[in-house]
What does this fold into?
Amino acid sequence: MEIPSKYSAQTVENKWYNYWMSHNYFHSTPDEREPYTIVIPPPNVTGVLHMGHMLNNTIQDVLIRRARLQGKNACWVPGTDHASIATEAKVVAKLKAQGIDKNDLTREEFLKHAWEWTEEYGGVILEQLKKLGCSCDWDRTKFTMDDDMSEAVIKVFVDLHNKGLIYRGYRMVNWDPEAKTTLSDEEVIHVEKQGSLYYLEYKIEGSDETLTIATTRPETIFGDTAICINPTDERFTHLKGKKAIVPICGRVIPIIEDEYVDLEFGTGCLKVTPAHDENDKVLGDKHNLEVVDIFNEDATLNSFGMHFEGQDRFVVRKAIAKELETSGVLVKTESHINKVGTSERTKAVIEPRLSDQWFLKMEELAKPAIDAVLKTGDVKLFPKKFENTYRHWMENIRDWNISRQLLWGQQIPAYFYGDGKEDYVVAESLDEALKLAKVKANNEKLTANNLKQDTDALDTWFSSWLWPMSVFDGIRNPENEEIKYYYPTNDLVTGPDILFFWVARMIVAGYEYKDQRPFENVYLTGLVRDKQRRKMSKSLGNSPDALKLIDEYSADGVRVGLLLSSAAGNDLMFDEALCQQGKGFSNKIWNAFNLTNLWDVDDTIAQPNSSKIALEWYEAKFQKALIEIEDHFSKYRLSDALMTIYKLIYDDFCGWMLEMVKPAYQQPIDAITYQKVMSIFEENLKIVHPFMPFLTEEIWQSIKERSPEEALIIAQWPKAKPINEHLISEFDFTSEVITGIRNIRTQKNIAFKDAIGFYVVNNENAASTFDEVISKLGNLESFEYVTEPVDGALTFRVKSNEYFIPMEGSIDVEAEVAKLTEELNYTEGFLKSVQKKLSNERFVAGAPEQVVASEKKKEADALAKIETIKSSLASLK
It folds into this structure.
């Protein structure tokens, strides 16, 4: 079969992906085999492929392809998340560009635009994953807003509400003024920012006295409803029971006492703004204070802001500081660093805001999920270090704010029938809601027109926490065949940044609805960073175009490049040189196949013993590597597994075995050796396939004609066999001998075509197993064991064995003696310096153990080298 001399990745990748798809290799249905299931962390429907996705999905594909080769029923479920905030923002921006204001649209009209946007741009990332070689079961592709997925979400909401776990409460929440929605605590990123501390004077009512207050937010004075002092603070005892006047707005507010006030911070007095600070709200409730909300939903000031109405909070902060300074109220300002909450999605500064929201009680729900990870080990985190993070989050869990002031998402199934706060029912449908409302209101005259559904949508995570169950319809139909077969899933691959957002919540949901873990193992990848350790981002311009990398280095090359340095949980320092290394590995394997394809096979010639022993040695190396690979996979050390495979194929197979068995120039190879080489090649392809699927399938199909049932993607993973450790050890020794011969050839410019003599003083009693291999790879015209050194020969040592290569007059003895003498003098001087250090008791006693061991090894190596040089000198004199 004619094989191209160069590997063409683009042609091969399209060809084999289409082949795999057309033969339905990725699709899974329940059968008698052991299932192996992965659910994809659903990327945002708005997303495009970036380096984090590339790493995460390559790892998943490696695991799923290996499971397939192991004969398991591998099922990798793909899909996307509707990403409420991000998607709604993109749709709003698109409408704005068309001159359409979201607020002018009905919910139905907006959702029509959102679905149009999703259909046009959504799922792009899934198509891009195909370029990477991802072998997802595309027939199972799910979207969190699919009808069946939404039904599951609504069913769970109703169930949890009926259990008393979901409630409606008027609480201080995290408000994103850009997205105009509330966020959970976990969606708020606290960023250290440089700000100012403003010292303001408040007049005491009925006197000329003033009280100085320190605040970081002077714009909130319009919402002040009290000043608080510590009852133990003697500085302010005389103010007890008095009132103060708020600057600019002139509101008279009480001076209250509470030990909450920190005597050391600022001036020891606190302005209390219950509508705009969580701690102030607690104080307000305790002291029955008025609540004055001064902000609109976009964080501009409302009518309470007087002449600042309609202006942004940060604009007002600067303007009000000037006004207060002019009026003599601003005493001074100081630089002040504090942590500011920002929206994970929009990066807007969060505004604490009071509003009615829906919450899920988490404390009891979390207990089985805590036990599963931290006590029973039913769910294992890799690496284990993340258990501490998990423990901290889960043992300090707060009620989950699950409502969002958005249109894009599952609409909360609460129906209001009256003006009271409790005048609502929760139901899966309007018809069911009407029945419940009639009973609750004791009013049979109610109609559907009297019911108004809550306009809020559910938090996106409230749909994705059901993902391992809902993709198999396990919520709507809990006893269906697929959920019983595929659940619980096996492995989850994701980033540690969503360990709480998603992973922990899926574990909670799994125990609540299936009384089972949702997965057994969680492999937490690191972040992809650049060589300067910076997180990759578009704003920094340090994130390469994922698809361009694939075009340049091939999908296999990029996969290998990513995985060569991505130990679980550790950040990956990405360098394109890694992809070049991956591409180079592809070329190495391709060239090895090309070499075997050039051999003529002759079934009439006998197998040389050198080939027989070489093949036996490689079989032993392969089996030893296979055990290492299996161990690495069991510990989710995929980088280590790949490196073991890389060294086995690059060094042992291409570097040694093919050299040992290849026929002489223009000579045929015997049929037994050839067939065994190709069988070994096929075993190599199997273990490389999960990492480099395209190249391996191309070579596999090129070795011989195969039916679709014989494709590599569904071949059988190699079986473990006994290992001949003696053979491996003997060849380790042999390879040093061959390297010694090659070094002398290089040093003396002796061409390989020129055969040389070879003599051995076998002080080691080394086995002669590989003597014929040494003869072949060293091109030796003679190979003799002797008891004495050979005069006039160049020599080298391996352990205590001495090897001699006669030069037969082709060597300048005088020059060689001078060179060796110089080398001897240098080595002896080096030895003295090392021994002096080792004779220093203080050094030996005080230095780290590994440093002392290193010095002792230097001593041993120097002694061996001196002995070798002296032996060479003796043979030349």
Summary: Residues 206 and 691 are 80 Å apart (CA to CA). The two ends are 58 Å apart (CA to CA).
